Structure formats: structure tokens, C-alpha cells
Amino acid sequence: MTAQVEQDLYQFSTYAPQIDLSFHQYLLIGDEPVLFHTGDVRGAAALIPQLNATLNGKTLKYIFVSHFEADECGGLSLISGSFPEAVTVCSEVTARQLVGFGYKNKILTKKPGEKLISNSYELEFFSYPSEMHLWEGLLALENRRGIFFSSDIMIRRGQANGIIIDTAWNTEINNIRPEQVPDPERLAQLQKTLTQLSPKLVATGHGPCLRLN
Q1: Cα separation, 154 vs 46, whole angstroms
Q2: What distance in Å separates the CA atoms of residue 133 and residue 124, rounded to the nearest whole number?
Q3: Rounded-to-10 torsion of CA 152, 157, 163, 169
Q4: Backbone angles phi, psi at 146, to 5 degrees
């Protein structure tokens, strides 16, 4: 299902009732459209026609992958087959994993603190010690709109297509669970980094989006 979250931010969702969890991907249109995550292979197959309809003739420029996991990048080869010019943006560790699994399209690696800037958006990247193995991934903040793409660190169960709820940023930071970042020091460092940010909206990987007050 497709939902318009913000003026030029679209959410694509599937729901897995057996685990009561929604899976989201996002498309930020802008002048150089960027897709956040691909879903797994089955999800990506359903996503492609939705992407084409939402892009409405525009070309997908980037695919952001926060970390190496099936629902983040399992459909990457399928999406890239339909959008061969799209460049995958990810951490160096994720890039090595993708190449090791046979991915051959162009990859742009980013480090924490670096940015990806176009005429209509500014993505800033932050360290993400992603579960389960604490592989070094990336979280992204679109600075001009104040949209934080939280991947797997802010999760709620249930069907959540197009749903936005109100909450407080510090509450969400404090609610990041140890199983999401299973290393106390790295969890504390991540929480410290996030407290320095001031987003307006969280585009979650699972569950409702979060409007911050």
C-alpha cells in the first residue's frame, strides 16, 4: 500500500499478520529521488509498480540501505534491475556484504558525519550499530525537512500504513531496547548522538511514523 506522509515523502507498506508487524519503505521525490530500503524479494516485486506510479516519469537516483538485512536490502537486485542507474548508498561494511553476495551495481559508501546533498534535500548520516551482529550501518536525517529515517531502532507492532502518531523525541530515544543495539556502550553512544538532533518526523521502518513535539 502507498501513503503520502509528507508533501514529497511516500511510504510503501506491507503487513505480516503472523508477527503483527508492518514493513515500510520510503520514497523521497525531490530533484534526485531516493528510495529508503527495498523490502525482501517478494516485497520488492510488489514495490516496483508502486515506485513507477509514484515517480511518474522521474528516474530513481539513489537507494539507501541502512544495514544488511532481508527487509532492508533483500530486494536490492530486483529493484536495481528495474532502475539500473540507481546508486546504492550505504556504509562500507554493508557495501562489502552486498558485493560478497554478488551485487554488481554502483555503490556509494558514506561514513557517519558525511552528507548526500541535492538541490532539494540534505541527507546526513549517523553511525548505526545494527542488530544482531552490531554490523556498522547508517541512520539518515533529512536536514531541510527534519525527517529522521530510524530503520529498526523505533518499532511498534500492528498495521501502520500511513499512520502518524504524536510523541516526544527523548521518549523514543530512551525506549530503544537493548535487543535492538545489544551492546550497552554502543547503545549509550547512539542515544547520546540522537539527543543532539531535533527532527520533526520519524519515518520508521516498522510501525507508525512519529510526529515529534
Answers
A1: 25
A2: 24
A3: -50
A4: 75, 40
Is the model's pLDDT at 134 over the cut of 90?
no
Average model confidence (pLDDT) across the chain: 95
CA nearest neighbour of 94 among 33, 23, 176, 37: 37
The upper half-sphere exposure of residue 186, i.e. CA atoms within 13 Å in the direction of its Cβ, equals 19
Architecture of the domain delimited by 2-212: 4-Layer Sandwich (3.60)
Kindly report the pTM of this predicted structure: 0.96
- The alpha carbon of 53 is separated from its chain's Cα centroid by a whole number of angstroms, namely 20
Nearest to 94 by CA among 52, 173, 151: 151
- Residue 154 to residue 7: CA distance in whole angstroms: 23
Sign of CA dihedral 183, 184, 189, 191: positive
pLDDT in tens, 190-203: 999 999 999 999 99
Could you give the C-alpha distances from 49 to 55, 79, 96, 133, in angstroms and in order? 10, 10, 29, 33
- Predicted confidence (pLDDT) per residue in 178-189, tens digit: 989 999 999 999
Average pLDDT over residues 117-128: 97
* Band of residue 213 on the pLDDT scale cut at 50, 70, 90: confident
Model confidence over 52-91: pLDDT tens digits? 999 999 999 999 999 999 999 999 999 999 999 999 999 9
d(CA 132, CA 180): 7
**Locate cell 500492528: which residue?**
158
